[in-house]
Amino acid sequence: MIKTLLIANRGEIACRIARTARRLGIRVVAIYSEADAQAAHVALSDEAHAVGPAPAADSYLNVDRILAAAAASGADAVHPGYGFLSENADFAAACAAAGLIFVGPPPDAIRVMGDKGRAKALMAQAGVPVLPGTDLDGDDPARWAAAAAEIGLPVLVKAAAGGGGRGMRIVTDLADLGDAVTAARREAAASFGDDRVLLERHLSRTRHVEVQVLADAAGACLSLHERDCSLQRRHQKVLEEAPAPGLGTATRRAMGEAAVRAAQAVDYRGAGTVEFLLGDDGSFHFIEMNTRLQVEHPVTEQVTGLDLVEWQLRIAAGEALPFGQDDVPVDGHAIEVRLYAEDPARGYLPSPGRLRHLRLPGSDGAGAPFLRLETGVRAGDAIPPDYDPMIAKLIVWDRDRPSALARLRAALAEAQVVGVATNLDLLRAIAAHPGFAAADLDTRFLDRHAADLLPHPPAAEDNVLALAALAVLLDRRRAAEARAAASADPGSPWHRVDGWRLNATATEDLTFRPAGDGAEVTVAVTYRRDGRFDLSWPGHRATAGGRMDADGTLAADLDGVRGRATALVSAEEVVLLGPGGAVHLDRIDPLVRAARAEAASGGAVAPVPGRIVSVLVAIGDRVGKGDPLVVLEAMKTEHTLRADTDGVVQTVGGAVGDTVEEGTVLVGLEA
After folding, report:
1. Is 292 tagged catalytic?
2. What is the pTM of this model?
3. pLDDT for 560-599, tens place per residue?
4. Which of 74, 213, 267, 532 lies 20 to 30 Å from 396 when distance is taken between CA atoms?
């Protein structure tokens, strides 16, 4: 067995590998970037090595620094996790050359399957069904258009050396092909260090079904059955389940056998995934093979009872599989959801920031085997803009799909995240949707049901406004009491926050705006001598009192009606958390609002922290409403910022390669 394992990754997968390795008695070595110095995977390790600045190219993709860390730590094996260098054949070969066990397939298998064009040709030879397509070499748009026309629209431009939805663009009009190729190449180069792309026929109504395979060095290769991964945004999965619902026995067997043939065609070793597009008629076509562990592997573990990370390590150490195909069970049903720091209402825009509050079911290990949580962050941690925006994976299991779905709904109702925008409400809406309950699935499920699924900001009901105002006032009082207790003069009047005024009634105004809603409401506050508050806003009045604890627990009394909630108060917002979810209310400062409005008028303001990858205008250029101005990369995804109005470019606030903060004015326009 491996003695010391270096994990060449970060986040929840690094934590998962570390826990499994330590259970097997393996010493764990972590690597980390400057952004991850205090990360959870570092805390779980026996030893940790810094490998560079936050950008992945300078740290988690820096082969020389990773191998130096392995040498310095005495590691005898390297586990690449998923993403980063996990499907980099040169890295696997470099590990072998350094005398390290690479926990994954041989470099040649990675190299062949990583080249989408070669892989498709090999799969066709092996009798695995494939879609029509071609490599897209050179810089001749006319030849690109001819190739796309021959394949037939719509076509998919996709990275030749990667997966996970990076470097993918759907093209329905040949006029858009050139821009799609340029953007896909740029994104592929940033994600995989390889800008080659290919064209492939895009099927509009399909399911995404993949088969987990496991192979040892002795030649045994098994199918561990399939997963349905049809629910996706931007070609990236949001929810996965095993087994795939509604799959006929013959189709299930044929897909499993095709996946095994695919793996055997490249002399595969370890855990891998063969992905297929499944049509309504039961026909399926090879998409790609991921020569690594998949994000969604826990659902396979839940229904088979196998620990895939453990078997990766055992196979890498030379062990043979002690069981055969007929020994791999399918027990019950498992569903996994991916909780992301992103805003579905804004085109799934990434939302880096600090997790002010994080409460996830299963974090204490309770609920097993029905509930499982995998995460690499804790409350107070930052979600940096340099990496994938995943916060956690929540996995549920039960004897059948309806029971598992009921557990998923209950678990999502308990989850609480504050500090970044998330897709939590979207996940709740998916779990509650009748189409999902009926397993009416395809890769455009989220688009087809967007009106039902995309979260709508809740209206600020009367009691919500009263609770928000009360939370602000009680949080201020609690902080003042803490300051007074810690001071040398606890009785000083300077600690008072009761709004006292000489010969005048103590009053103030608090202005709120429900997140996503332009309607502002001002709550007038009158301080009472008994420590309570009289609150009034258009058409309403209430007397409020209570207490707020340091953890945000709010015990409220509104006109004699008592209740409890969790409230998180900051200078910018109030968040009220309850069983129905979270209500966000912005706290409005008129001076700050005016300054931001002036800065953002008409031009491009960075919506998130990120790196400028393209500036499309120069000072003096005339632009029209909707014209692209700047392309910003954040969390491995490109975002094109467009003009809000016609105008002339007055300022350009950054150059290609610059890292900018949220709110930076990148292009200023004069109407």
Report:
1. yes
2. 0.80
3. 999 888 899 988 889 998 766 788 888 887 655 555 555 4
4. 213
Rounded Cα distance, 636 and 165, in Å: 10
Strand-pairing partners, residue 233, are 236
CA distance 427 to 441: 15
CB 70 within 8 A of CB 6: yes
Q: Among 227, 292, 401, 513, which one carries the catalytic annotation?
A: 292
CA-angle at 108, arms to 104 and 110, nearest 5°: 50
Q: Which residues contact 168 (CB under 8 A, 6 or more apart)?
A: 156, 157, 158, 159, 184, 234, 235
Helix ranges (H only) for 345-444 are 401-414, 424-432, 434-437
- Indicate the range of 131-140, 423-432, 460-469, 500-509 predicted with least confidence: 500-509
Omega before 361 cis (within 30°)? Answer: no
Measuring CA to CA, which residue among 214, 216, 212 is closest to residue 320?
A: 216
- Domains of the chain in start order, with CATH, are 4-103 (3.40.50.20), 132-201 (3.30.1490.20), 206-331 (3.30.470.20), 332-453 (3.30.470.20), 462-587 (3.30.700.30), 591-670 (2.40.50.100)
DSSP at 531 = S
**Crossing angle between the packed helical segments 89-97 and 63-73, to the nearest 10 degrees:** 30
Q: What is the distance between the alpha carbons of residues 153 and 156, in angstroms, rounded to a whole number?
A: 9
